[in-house]
């Protein structure tokens, strides 16, 4: 079982992708630095709190922050590799259509948002909300896409149905397919590929530097010697979905980035997600529980969470140490991920 998202649980056909890799890889790839525990950092708890407060305020706007300066001008044509094994030539980026919310967020952050003509249902940030929707449920409508006359379409390997993608391509529209982000290093890879496909490679490099620098600064606030165990719980109470994250859940990489230990992985859970049992929770012994906000709401908040068998017997349950973040942002895995780390560094290390 993988991270519940667009292609995992029946109730959530596609959506959040799995994240999992050592954060050091991302930092080196993006130009950042620093170790996982923040050792040697001169940051103080007050610094971390200030960053977390600023991050919370920014996330509350549900907006992206484009690169500074003048928007880049695409230099085209370019021919790029598509993850479906094709070579795709892009000659015009005046009407861009991203068929994934995370891809759309990168396009907007690169400074090309005014060229985007439509959105996928997962593009929920403020700048995209007024754009025409080209998906029905989670399936792409080829007719809706073609009605917007895009000059380039950006898709994921799990974007579908395949017949719709074929219909768009057969109409003469270049379709560049990208691998889903499945580990933290994919932030830089994905950004680079999108920027190259749109003819703005320098902007891609600049965005990668910004993400790497922001992530390094966030991690610098980790208190020296603090290594709490954090369990990521994915819950949908109305659907009776109760899962605990383990190795490869995606949340494990965020927990590591924030200078903590993933409790599920540490307890021996070698699958991304495992059904919650009292035994698994007691063995994991998390100091902090991490959840998506809607998931926490679905079980009745913290009080309802403590009624789930095994929760109240953990250190996190006994201390009511529960951290939640908005669903689309927590595992959104894009330009706003450093803001997530800012918040986690402050909240999971709090005494």
Automatic annotation (TrEMBL):
Residue ranges crossing the lipid bilayer per the database entry: none
One Pfam family from the record: Peripla_BP_2
InterPro entries, sorted: ABC_Transporter_SBP (IPR050902), ABC_transptr_periplasmic_BD (IPR002491)
Domain Fe/B12 periplasmic-binding: 95-351
PROSITE patterns: FE_B12_PBP, PROKAR_LIPOPROTEIN
Family: Belongs to the bacterial solute-binding protein 8 family.
PANTHER family named in the record: HEMIN-BINDING PERIPLASMIC PROTEIN HMUT, VITAMIN B12-BINDING PROTEIN
Entry protein name: ABC transporter substrate-binding protein
